[in-house]
Protein backbone atom coordinates (compact mmCIF):
# COMPACT_ATOMS: atom_id res chain seq x y z
CA UNK A 1 0.00 0.00 0.00
CA UNK A 2 1.06 3.61 -0.56
CA UNK A 3 2.76 5.41 2.31
CA UNK A 4 0.55 8.42 1.91
CA UNK A 5 -2.12 9.25 -0.66
CA UNK A 6 -4.35 12.20 -1.38
CA UNK A 7 -7.62 11.69 -3.17
CA UNK A 8 -9.33 14.68 -4.86
CA UNK A 9 -7.96 17.08 -2.27
CA UNK A 10 -9.11 20.69 -2.62
CA UNK A 11 -7.99 23.64 -0.51
CA UNK A 12 -9.08 27.25 -0.85
CA UNK A 13 -8.39 30.38 1.15
CA UNK A 14 -11.54 32.46 0.79
CA UNK A 15 -12.22 32.80 -2.92
CA UNK A 16 -8.72 31.72 -3.80
CA UNK A 17 -8.70 28.11 -4.95
CA UNK A 18 -5.21 26.88 -4.15
CA UNK A 19 -5.49 23.13 -4.71
CA UNK A 20 -8.12 21.61 -6.92
CA UNK A 21 -8.83 17.87 -6.93
CA UNK A 22 -5.26 16.81 -6.35
CA UNK A 23 -4.71 13.06 -6.22
CA UNK A 24 -1.29 11.58 -5.74
CA UNK A 25 0.37 8.76 -3.87
CA UNK A 26 3.86 8.10 -2.59
CA UNK A 27 5.07 4.50 -2.81
CA UNK A 28 7.64 3.00 -0.40
CA UNK A 29 11.22 3.81 -1.36
CA UNK A 30 10.52 6.08 -4.33
CA UNK A 31 11.78 9.59 -4.95
CA UNK A 32 8.99 11.88 -6.09
CA UNK A 33 9.67 15.47 -7.11
CA UNK A 34 6.83 17.98 -7.25
CA UNK A 35 7.57 21.02 -9.40
CA UNK A 36 5.45 24.09 -10.01
CA UNK A 37 5.68 27.86 -10.32
CA UNK A 38 5.24 30.21 -7.36
CA UNK A 39 1.69 30.17 -6.03
CA UNK A 40 0.93 26.77 -7.53
CA UNK A 41 0.04 25.29 -4.15
CA UNK A 42 3.18 23.22 -3.58
CA UNK A 43 3.71 24.35 -0.01
CA UNK A 44 -0.01 24.01 0.71
CA UNK A 45 0.16 20.44 -0.54
CA UNK A 46 3.01 19.74 1.85
CA UNK A 47 1.07 21.33 4.71
CA UNK A 48 -1.85 19.06 3.89
CA UNK A 49 0.46 16.05 3.97
CA UNK A 50 1.95 16.89 7.38
CA UNK A 51 -1.48 17.76 8.76
CA UNK A 52 -0.94 21.50 9.22
CA UNK A 53 -3.73 22.32 6.77
CA UNK A 54 -7.14 20.69 6.51
CA UNK A 55 -8.54 20.31 3.00
CA UNK A 56 -12.12 21.46 2.36
CA UNK A 57 -12.81 18.28 0.47
CA UNK A 58 -11.04 15.08 -0.47
CA UNK A 59 -9.32 12.40 1.54
CA UNK A 60 -5.84 11.75 2.85
CA UNK A 61 -4.80 8.23 3.72
CA UNK A 62 -1.65 7.48 5.66
CA UNK A 63 -0.21 4.05 6.17
CA UNK A 64 -0.82 3.16 9.82
CA UNK A 65 2.24 4.03 11.92
CA UNK A 66 3.78 6.15 9.17
CA UNK A 67 6.81 8.10 10.38
CA UNK A 68 7.36 11.37 8.52
CA UNK A 69 10.60 13.35 8.51
CA UNK A 70 10.07 16.95 7.46
CA UNK A 71 12.67 19.41 6.17
CA UNK A 72 11.10 22.88 6.03
CA UNK A 73 11.77 25.44 3.33
CA UNK A 74 13.29 28.00 5.58
CA UNK A 75 13.73 28.11 9.28
CA UNK A 76 14.44 31.28 11.13
CA UNK A 77 15.63 30.78 14.68
CA UNK A 78 15.35 34.05 16.56
CA UNK A 79 18.82 35.22 17.67
CA UNK A 80 17.47 35.61 21.21
CA UNK A 81 17.01 31.83 21.39
CA UNK A 82 20.28 30.11 22.31
CA UNK A 83 20.28 26.51 21.10
CA UNK A 84 22.97 24.02 20.23
CA UNK A 85 22.69 21.67 17.26
CA UNK A 86 22.30 18.71 19.59
CA UNK A 87 19.47 20.33 21.59
CA UNK A 88 17.75 21.21 18.31
CA UNK A 89 18.04 17.63 17.09
CA UNK A 90 16.55 16.36 20.34
CA UNK A 91 13.33 18.36 19.90
CA UNK A 92 10.61 17.51 20.70
CA UNK A 93 12.21 14.75 22.70
CA UNK A 94 12.83 11.07 23.14
CA UNK A 95 16.07 10.99 21.16
CA UNK A 96 19.40 9.75 22.46
CA UNK A 97 22.74 11.49 22.08
CA UNK A 98 24.05 8.57 20.01
CA UNK A 99 21.12 8.91 17.59
CA UNK A 100 21.98 12.61 17.14
CA UNK A 101 25.59 11.82 16.31
CA UNK A 102 24.51 9.13 13.85
CA UNK A 103 21.95 11.39 12.16
CA UNK A 104 24.50 14.19 11.72
CA UNK A 105 26.84 11.68 10.12
CA UNK A 106 24.08 10.43 7.78
CA UNK A 107 23.32 14.00 6.76
CA UNK A 108 26.98 14.63 5.96
CA UNK A 109 27.82 17.04 8.78
CA UNK A 110 29.45 14.98 11.55
CA UNK A 111 30.80 16.68 14.64
CA UNK A 112 28.56 19.74 14.73
CA UNK A 113 26.73 18.68 17.94
CA UNK A 114 28.03 21.44 20.17
CA UNK A 115 27.85 24.35 17.73
CA UNK A 116 25.19 27.02 18.12
CA UNK A 117 22.51 26.86 15.42
CA UNK A 118 23.06 30.57 14.73
CA UNK A 119 26.74 29.92 13.94
CA UNK A 120 26.06 27.51 11.05
CA UNK A 121 26.46 28.32 7.36
CA UNK A 122 23.47 27.99 5.02
CA UNK A 123 24.56 24.58 3.74
CA UNK A 124 25.31 23.25 7.23
CA UNK A 125 21.96 24.53 8.47
CA UNK A 126 20.08 22.67 5.69
CA UNK A 127 21.94 19.48 6.53
CA UNK A 128 21.18 19.82 10.23
CA UNK A 129 17.50 20.15 9.26
CA UNK A 130 17.94 16.98 7.21
CA UNK A 131 19.60 15.25 10.17
CA UNK A 132 16.67 16.17 12.41
CA UNK A 133 14.24 14.76 9.85
CA UNK A 134 16.26 11.52 9.71
CA UNK A 135 16.52 10.99 13.46
CA UNK A 136 13.37 8.93 13.89
CA UNK A 137 14.23 6.72 10.89
CA UNK A 138 11.26 7.98 8.85
CA UNK A 139 9.45 5.98 6.17
CA UNK A 140 8.86 9.19 4.26
CA UNK A 141 11.01 12.27 3.99
CA UNK A 142 9.29 15.51 2.95
CA UNK A 143 11.51 18.30 1.65
CA UNK A 144 10.15 21.77 0.94
CA UNK A 145 12.46 23.55 -1.49
CA UNK A 146 15.29 22.33 0.64
CA UNK A 147 17.98 23.63 -1.71
CA UNK A 148 16.73 27.21 -1.70
CA UNK A 149 19.60 29.54 -1.02
CA UNK A 150 22.21 27.01 -2.09
CA UNK A 151 24.17 27.52 -5.31
CA UNK A 152 24.12 24.88 -8.04
CA UNK A 153 27.09 22.81 -6.80
CA UNK A 154 25.60 23.18 -3.30
CA UNK A 155 22.20 21.83 -4.34
CA UNK A 156 23.84 19.08 -6.39
CA UNK A 157 25.81 17.99 -3.32
CA UNK A 158 22.61 18.11 -1.27
CA UNK A 159 20.76 15.96 -3.84
CA UNK A 160 23.58 13.40 -3.82
CA UNK A 161 23.26 13.30 -0.04
CA UNK A 162 19.52 12.67 -0.31
CA UNK A 163 20.13 9.89 -2.80
CA UNK A 164 22.62 8.31 -0.42
CA UNK A 165 20.09 8.56 2.40
CA UNK A 166 17.55 6.73 0.27
CA UNK A 167 20.05 4.02 -0.55
CA UNK A 168 21.07 3.56 3.08
CA UNK A 169 17.69 3.81 4.78
CA UNK A 170 15.24 2.92 2.02
CA UNK A 171 12.87 5.73 2.96
CA UNK A 172 10.64 7.33 0.34
CA UNK A 173 11.28 10.96 -0.52
CA UNK A 174 8.84 13.64 -1.62
CA UNK A 175 10.61 16.79 -2.66
CA UNK A 176 9.15 20.12 -3.67
CA UNK A 177 10.97 22.41 -6.04
CA UNK A 178 10.17 25.73 -7.67
CA UNK A 179 12.64 24.92 -10.44
CA UNK A 180 10.34 23.91 -13.28
CA UNK A 181 12.83 22.15 -15.48
CA UNK A 182 15.83 21.18 -13.38
CA UNK A 183 15.13 18.37 -10.96
CA UNK A 184 17.03 15.85 -8.92
CA UNK A 185 18.34 13.20 -11.32
CA UNK A 186 17.48 10.36 -8.96
CA UNK A 187 13.76 11.23 -9.02
CA UNK A 188 11.69 8.22 -10.03
CA UNK A 189 8.76 10.44 -10.89
CA UNK A 190 8.13 14.13 -11.39
CA UNK A 191 4.73 15.70 -10.87
CA UNK A 192 4.00 19.17 -12.20
CA UNK A 193 1.54 20.97 -9.95
CA UNK A 194 -0.32 24.14 -10.75
CA UNK A 195 -3.37 24.09 -8.55
CA UNK A 196 -4.04 20.71 -10.07
CA UNK A 197 -1.75 17.96 -11.33
CA UNK A 198 -0.68 19.22 -14.76
CA UNK A 199 1.50 16.37 -15.88
CA UNK A 200 3.59 13.56 -14.59
CA UNK A 201 6.67 11.80 -15.92
CA UNK A 202 10.25 10.72 -15.43
CA UNK A 203 13.19 13.14 -15.60
CA UNK A 204 15.65 12.94 -18.44
CA UNK A 205 19.00 11.93 -17.13
CA UNK A 206 21.55 14.56 -17.97
CA UNK A 207 23.94 12.98 -20.38
CA UNK A 208 27.53 13.84 -20.88
CA UNK A 209 26.54 16.08 -23.79
CA UNK A 210 28.47 19.33 -23.74
CA UNK A 211 25.38 21.53 -23.87
CA UNK A 212 24.08 19.98 -20.64
CA UNK A 213 27.46 20.34 -19.06
CA UNK A 214 27.42 24.00 -20.05
CA UNK A 215 23.91 24.39 -18.60
CA UNK A 216 24.71 22.89 -15.23
CA UNK A 217 28.33 23.91 -14.90
CA UNK A 218 30.92 21.56 -13.55
CA UNK A 219 30.97 19.86 -10.23
CA UNK A 220 27.30 18.86 -10.06
CA UNK A 221 28.23 15.20 -10.47
CA UNK A 222 25.15 14.25 -12.47
CA UNK A 223 22.80 15.07 -9.60
CA UNK A 224 20.62 17.31 -11.74
CA UNK A 225 18.36 16.35 -14.61
CA UNK A 226 15.89 17.99 -16.96
CA UNK A 227 12.16 17.47 -16.85
CA UNK A 228 10.16 17.97 -20.04
CA UNK A 229 6.58 18.98 -19.44
CA UNK A 230 4.04 17.12 -21.58
CA UNK A 231 0.81 18.96 -20.96
CA UNK A 232 -2.08 17.20 -22.64
CA UNK A 233 -4.77 19.63 -21.65
CA UNK A 234 -5.71 23.21 -22.34
CA UNK A 235 -7.07 25.89 -20.06
CA UNK A 236 -9.91 28.26 -20.76
CA UNK A 237 -9.40 32.01 -20.93
CA UNK A 238 -10.06 32.52 -17.23
CA UNK A 239 -7.08 30.41 -16.33
CA UNK A 240 -4.09 32.59 -15.71
CA UNK A 241 -1.41 30.09 -15.02
CA UNK A 242 1.47 29.62 -17.25
CA UNK A 243 2.62 26.43 -18.85
CA UNK A 244 5.74 27.91 -20.36
CA UNK A 245 7.58 25.17 -22.18
CA UNK A 246 11.32 25.22 -21.86
CA UNK A 247 12.04 25.13 -25.57
CA UNK A 248 10.46 25.18 -29.01
CA UNK A 249 10.48 21.42 -29.28
CA UNK A 250 7.99 20.83 -26.47
CA UNK A 251 5.94 23.78 -27.56
CA UNK A 252 5.48 22.01 -30.87
CA UNK A 253 4.62 18.81 -29.07
CA UNK A 254 1.83 20.50 -27.09
CA UNK B 1 9.14 33.73 60.00
CA UNK B 2 6.23 34.80 57.77
CA UNK B 3 5.40 37.42 60.42
CA UNK B 4 8.11 39.65 59.06
CA UNK B 5 6.83 41.85 56.22
CA UNK B 6 10.27 41.84 54.56
CA UNK B 7 10.35 38.05 54.47
CA UNK B 8 6.86 37.92 52.98
CA UNK B 9 7.86 40.56 50.42
CA UNK B 10 11.02 38.67 49.45
CA UNK B 11 9.08 35.40 49.07
CA UNK B 12 6.48 37.18 46.93
CA UNK B 13 9.20 38.66 44.72
CA UNK B 14 10.98 35.34 44.29
CA UNK B 15 7.67 33.60 43.51
CA UNK B 16 6.91 36.03 40.71
CA UNK B 17 10.49 35.84 39.41
CA UNK B 18 10.31 32.03 39.22
CA UNK B 19 7.09 32.09 37.16
CA UNK B 20 8.26 35.00 35.02
CA UNK B 21 11.58 33.37 34.04
CA UNK B 22 10.44 30.49 31.76
CA UNK B 23 7.45 32.48 30.52
CA UNK B 24 9.61 35.56 29.94
CA UNK B 25 12.04 33.46 27.89
CA UNK B 26 9.20 32.45 25.56
CA UNK B 27 7.99 36.06 25.45
CA UNK B 28 11.49 37.09 24.28
CA UNK B 29 11.91 34.21 21.79
CA UNK B 30 8.49 34.70 20.25
CA UNK B 31 8.74 38.50 20.25
CA UNK B 32 5.65 38.84 22.40
CA UNK B 33 7.01 41.65 24.59
CA UNK B 34 4.28 44.06 23.59
CA UNK B 35 1.71 41.31 24.07
CA UNK B 36 2.85 40.90 27.69
CA UNK B 37 2.72 44.63 28.25
CA UNK B 38 -0.77 44.91 26.76
CA UNK B 39 -2.12 41.99 28.80
CA UNK B 40 -0.81 43.65 31.94
CA UNK B 41 -2.39 47.00 31.10
CA UNK B 42 -5.72 45.35 30.47
CA UNK B 43 -5.56 43.78 33.93
CA UNK B 44 -6.33 47.14 35.55
CA UNK B 45 -9.86 46.81 34.16
CA UNK B 46 -9.98 43.43 35.89
CA UNK B 47 -8.94 45.09 39.13
CA UNK B 48 -11.72 47.69 38.79
CA UNK B 49 -14.31 45.03 38.01
CA UNK B 50 -13.30 42.85 40.95
CA UNK B 51 -13.53 45.82 43.30
CA UNK B 52 -16.97 46.69 41.96
CA UNK B 53 -18.23 43.11 42.09
CA UNK B 54 -16.35 42.37 45.33
CA UNK B 55 -14.64 39.28 43.97
CA UNK B 56 -10.96 38.47 44.35
CA UNK B 57 -8.57 40.77 42.46
CA UNK B 58 -6.70 37.69 41.24
CA UNK B 59 -9.82 36.19 39.61
CA UNK B 60 -10.84 39.49 38.03
CA UNK B 61 -7.37 40.20 36.66
CA UNK B 62 -6.96 36.68 35.26
CA UNK B 63 -10.37 36.85 33.59
CA UNK B 64 -9.81 40.22 31.88
CA UNK B 65 -6.18 39.48 30.92
CA UNK B 66 -7.25 36.17 29.41
CA UNK B 67 -10.23 37.72 27.58
CA UNK B 68 -7.92 40.41 26.15
CA UNK B 69 -5.30 37.91 25.04
CA UNK B 70 -7.86 35.57 23.45
CA UNK B 71 -9.59 38.44 21.64
CA UNK B 72 -6.28 39.57 20.15
CA UNK B 73 -5.39 36.02 19.12
CA UNK B 74 -8.75 35.52 17.43
CA UNK B 75 -8.82 38.91 15.69
CA UNK B 76 -5.22 38.94 14.47
CA UNK B 77 -5.00 38.52 10.73
CA UNK B 78 -8.51 39.86 10.11
CA UNK B 79 -7.50 43.18 8.67
CA UNK B 80 -5.54 44.53 11.62
CA UNK B 81 -1.93 43.89 12.55
CA UNK B 82 -1.28 42.38 15.97
CA UNK B 83 0.31 45.53 17.42
CA UNK B 84 -2.57 47.77 16.30
CA UNK B 85 -5.10 45.45 17.95
CA UNK B 86 -3.00 45.26 21.10
CA UNK B 87 -2.74 49.04 21.21
CA UNK B 88 -6.48 49.50 20.79
CA UNK B 89 -7.56 46.80 23.24
CA UNK B 90 -4.93 47.21 25.94
CA UNK B 91 -5.14 50.96 26.24
CA UNK B 92 -8.93 50.96 25.98
CA UNK B 93 -9.05 48.42 28.79
CA UNK B 94 -6.61 50.50 30.83
CA UNK B 95 -8.64 53.68 30.23
CA UNK B 96 -11.97 52.01 30.99
CA UNK B 97 -10.38 50.50 34.09
CA UNK B 98 -9.17 53.87 35.34
CA UNK B 99 -12.55 55.47 34.64
CA UNK B 100 -14.40 52.58 36.31
CA UNK B 101 -12.23 52.90 39.41
CA UNK B 102 -13.22 56.56 39.73
CA UNK B 103 -16.90 55.53 39.96
CA UNK B 104 -16.16 53.35 42.96
CA UNK B 105 -16.46 56.28 45.34
CA UNK B 106 -17.68 54.17 48.22
CA UNK B 107 -14.35 52.39 48.52
CA UNK B 108 -11.07 54.11 49.15
CA UNK B 109 -8.71 52.78 46.53
CA UNK B 110 -5.08 53.44 46.27
CA UNK B 111 -4.71 53.20 42.51
CA UNK B 112 -0.95 53.59 42.79
CA UNK B 113 -0.84 50.26 44.60
CA UNK B 114 -2.13 48.52 41.49
CA UNK B 115 -0.11 50.51 38.98
CA UNK B 116 3.21 50.13 40.79
CA UNK B 117 2.54 47.26 43.16
CA UNK B 118 2.62 47.18 46.94
CA UNK B 119 4.98 44.34 47.72
CA UNK B 120 5.54 45.41 51.32
CA UNK B 121 1.82 44.90 52.04
CA UNK B 122 1.77 41.27 50.88
CA UNK B 123 -0.26 39.18 53.32
CA UNK B 124 -0.06 35.46 54.02
CA UNK B 125 -3.05 34.80 51.78
CA UNK B 126 -1.51 36.94 49.00
CA UNK B 127 1.59 34.81 49.34
CA UNK B 128 -0.48 31.66 48.94
CA UNK B 129 -2.07 33.06 45.76
CA UNK B 130 1.31 34.16 44.35
CA UNK B 131 3.04 30.84 45.00
CA UNK B 132 -0.01 28.86 43.88
CA UNK B 133 -0.15 30.84 40.63
CA UNK B 134 3.60 30.62 40.12
CA UNK B 135 3.57 26.85 40.69
CA UNK B 136 0.74 26.53 38.17
CA UNK B 137 2.63 28.53 35.54
CA UNK B 138 5.93 26.69 36.09
CA UNK B 139 4.05 23.37 36.03
CA UNK B 140 2.19 24.22 32.81
CA UNK B 141 5.31 25.40 31.00
CA UNK B 142 7.44 22.56 32.34
CA UNK B 143 4.85 20.02 31.20
CA UNK B 144 4.63 21.47 27.67
CA UNK B 145 8.29 22.58 27.46
CA UNK B 146 9.41 20.55 24.45
CA UNK B 147 6.20 21.11 22.52
CA UNK B 148 6.31 24.85 23.25
CA UNK B 149 9.94 25.05 22.18
CA UNK B 150 9.27 23.14 18.95
CA UNK B 151 6.32 25.35 18.02
CA UNK B 152 8.35 28.46 18.87
CA UNK B 153 11.07 27.41 16.43
CA UNK B 154 8.67 26.45 13.64
CA UNK B 155 4.94 25.79 13.45
CA UNK B 156 5.46 23.39 10.52
CA UNK B 157 8.07 21.34 12.38
CA UNK B 158 5.63 21.14 15.26
CA UNK B 159 2.82 19.88 13.02
CA UNK B 160 5.14 17.29 11.49
CA UNK B 161 5.91 16.04 15.02
CA UNK B 162 2.22 15.81 15.86
CA UNK B 163 2.11 19.00 17.95
CA UNK B 164 -0.71 21.52 17.59
CA UNK B 165 0.99 24.98 17.77
CA UNK B 166 -2.30 26.80 18.40
CA UNK B 167 -2.87 24.78 21.55
CA UNK B 168 0.65 25.57 22.75
CA UNK B 169 0.03 29.27 22.07
CA UNK B 170 -3.06 29.00 24.25
CA UNK B 171 -0.98 27.57 27.09
CA UNK B 172 1.39 30.54 26.89
CA UNK B 173 -1.54 32.96 26.82
CA UNK B 174 -3.07 31.32 29.89
CA UNK B 175 0.29 31.39 31.71
CA UNK B 176 0.70 35.05 30.83
CA UNK B 177 -2.71 35.92 32.27
CA UNK B 178 -1.95 34.06 35.51
CA UNK B 179 1.49 35.64 35.85
CA UNK B 180 0.07 39.13 35.28
CA UNK B 181 -2.58 38.54 37.94
CA UNK B 182 -0.15 37.30 40.60
CA UNK B 183 2.44 39.98 39.81
CA UNK B 184 0.05 42.94 40.23
CA UNK B 185 0.64 43.05 43.97
CA UNK B 186 4.41 42.70 43.57
CA UNK B 187 5.44 45.09 40.80
CA UNK B 188 2.11 46.53 39.60
CA UNK B 189 0.64 46.43 36.10
CA UNK B 190 3.07 48.97 34.66
CA UNK B 191 6.20 46.97 35.49
CA UNK B 192 5.06 43.35 34.97
CA UNK B 193 6.46 43.25 31.44
CA UNK B 194 9.81 44.34 32.88
CA UNK B 195 9.87 41.31 35.20
CA UNK B 196 9.11 39.07 32.22
CA UNK B 197 11.60 40.48 29.76
CA UNK B 198 14.58 41.94 31.61
CA UNK B 199 15.79 38.80 33.47
CA UNK B 200 15.35 36.68 30.31
CA UNK B 201 17.19 39.25 28.19
CA UNK B 202 19.98 39.44 30.78
CA UNK B 203 20.27 35.64 30.76
CA UNK B 204 20.62 35.43 26.97
CA UNK B 205 24.38 36.16 26.67
CA UNK B 206 25.08 33.74 29.54
CA UNK B 207 23.31 30.74 28.00
CA UNK B 208 23.94 28.11 25.34
CA UNK B 209 20.64 26.23 25.50
CA UNK B 210 17.01 27.29 26.05
CA UNK B 211 16.91 25.47 29.40
CA UNK B 212 20.00 27.30 30.62
CA UNK B 213 18.44 30.60 29.64
CA UNK B 214 15.22 29.94 31.59
CA UNK B 215 17.14 28.81 34.70
CA UNK B 216 19.56 31.74 34.53
CA UNK B 217 16.61 34.11 34.12
CA UNK B 218 15.04 32.60 37.26
CA UNK B 219 18.26 33.15 39.20
CA UNK B 220 18.63 36.74 37.94
CA UNK B 221 14.97 37.52 38.68
CA UNK B 222 15.13 36.12 42.22
CA UNK B 223 18.40 37.92 42.91
CA UNK B 224 16.89 41.18 41.62
CA UNK B 225 13.81 40.74 43.82
CA UNK B 226 15.80 40.19 47.02
CA UNK B 227 18.48 42.81 46.28
CA UNK B 228 15.91 45.33 45.08
CA UNK B 229 13.88 44.92 48.27
CA UNK B 230 16.90 45.47 50.47
CA UNK B 231 17.93 48.50 48.43
CA UNK B 232 14.41 49.90 48.74
CA UNK B 233 14.52 49.39 52.52
CA UNK B 234 17.96 50.97 52.88
CA UNK B 235 17.39 53.89 50.50
CA UNK B 236 13.67 54.38 51.23
CA UNK B 237 12.72 54.00 47.55
CA UNK B 238 9.57 52.36 46.09
CA UNK B 239 10.05 48.57 46.21
CA UNK B 240 8.64 47.44 42.82
CA UNK B 241 10.63 49.91 40.71
CA UNK B 242 13.77 49.19 42.79
CA UNK B 243 13.50 45.48 41.89
CA UNK B 244 13.23 46.37 38.20
CA UNK B 245 16.21 48.74 38.51
CA UNK B 246 18.40 45.94 39.88
CA UNK B 247 17.31 43.62 37.04
CA UNK B 248 18.14 46.36 34.54
CA UNK B 249 21.63 46.73 36.05
CA UNK B 250 22.19 42.97 35.73
CA UNK B 251 21.10 43.22 32.09
CA UNK B 252 23.58 46.04 31.54
CA UNK B 253 26.39 44.03 33.14
CA UNK B 254 25.56 40.87 31.12
CA UNK B 255 25.42 42.67 27.78
CA UNK B 256 28.60 44.60 28.55
CA UNK B 257 30.32 41.32 29.40
CA UNK B 258 29.14 39.87 26.10
CA UNK B 259 30.43 42.92 24.24
CA UNK B 260 33.84 42.65 25.89
CA UNK B 261 34.08 38.90 25.27
CA UNK B 262 33.34 39.02 21.54
Description of the structure:
The complex is a heterodimer of chains A (about 250) and B (about 260). Chain A has one domain: 3-Layer(aba) Sandwich (Rossmann fold). In chain A, the strands form 3 sheets. A 6-stranded mixed sheet of chain A has the order 5-6-7-3-9-10. A 3-stranded antiparallel sheet of chain A has the order 2-1-4, with helices on one face. Helices cover about 25% and strands about 25% of the residues of chain A. Chain A has about 250 residues and is α/β, with parallel strands linked by helices. Chain A has helices at about 40-50, 85-90, 95-105, 120-135, 150-170, 210-215, 250-254, and strands at about 5-15, 15-25, 30-35, 55-60, 70, 140-145, 170-175, 180-185, 190-195, 195-200, 205, 225. Chain A is globular, with a radius of gyration of 19 Å. In chain A, helix 3 packs across helix 4 (about 120-135). In chain A, strand 1 and strand 2 (about 15-25) form a beta hairpin. Chain B has about 260 residues and is mostly helical. In chain B, about 80% of the residues lie in helices and about 0% in strands. The longest helix of chain B has 26 residues, at about 210-235. Chain B is globular, with a radius of gyration of 18 Å. Chain B starts with a helix and ends with a helix. The chains are: A alpha/beta (about 250), B mainly alpha (about 260). The interface of A and B includes residues 51 and 81 of A.
* Average of per-residue pLDDT values of chain B: 89
Helix percent of chain B reads over 70%
Based on helices, strands and strand pairing, what is the structural class of chain A?
alpha/beta
The span between the termini of chain B is 46 Å
Q: What is the straight-line distance between the termini of chain A? A: 34 Å
What kind of assembly state do the chains in view correspond to? heterodimer
Count up the domains of chain A: 1
How big is the Rg of chain B?
Answer: 18 Å
CATH topology type of chain A: Rossmann fold
Which spans of chain B have pLDDT < 50 for at least 5 consecutive residues? none
Number of domains of chain B: 1
CATH topology type of chain B: ABC transporter involved in vitamin B12 uptake, BtuC
CATH architecture of chain A: 3-Layer(aba) Sandwich
- Greatest contact pair? A-B, 25 and 29 residues
Strand content of chain A: 25-35%
Top-tier CATH class of chain A: Alpha Beta
The total of helices of chain B stands at 12
Going by CATH, the architecture of chain B would be: Orthogonal Bundle
Q: SSE order of chain A, as H and E?
A: EEEHEEHHHEHEEEEEHEH
Reading the helices and strands of chain B in chain order gives HHHHHHHHHHHH
- Helix proportion of chain A: 25-40%
Amino acid sequence: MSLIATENVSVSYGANNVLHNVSLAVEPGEILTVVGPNGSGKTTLLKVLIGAERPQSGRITRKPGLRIGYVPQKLHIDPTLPITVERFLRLPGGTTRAACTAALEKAGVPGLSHRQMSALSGGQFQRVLLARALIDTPDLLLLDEATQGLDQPGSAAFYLQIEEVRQKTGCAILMISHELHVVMAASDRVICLNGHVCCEGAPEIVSAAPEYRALFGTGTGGALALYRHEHDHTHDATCTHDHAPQDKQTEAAE
Amino acid sequence: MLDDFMTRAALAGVGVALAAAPLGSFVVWRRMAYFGDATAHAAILGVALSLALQISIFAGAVAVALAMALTVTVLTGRGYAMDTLLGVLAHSALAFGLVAVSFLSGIRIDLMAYLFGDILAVSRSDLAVIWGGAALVVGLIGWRWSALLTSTISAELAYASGIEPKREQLILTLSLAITVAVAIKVVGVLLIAAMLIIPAAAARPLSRTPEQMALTAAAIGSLSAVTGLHAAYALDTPAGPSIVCVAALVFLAASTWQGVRS
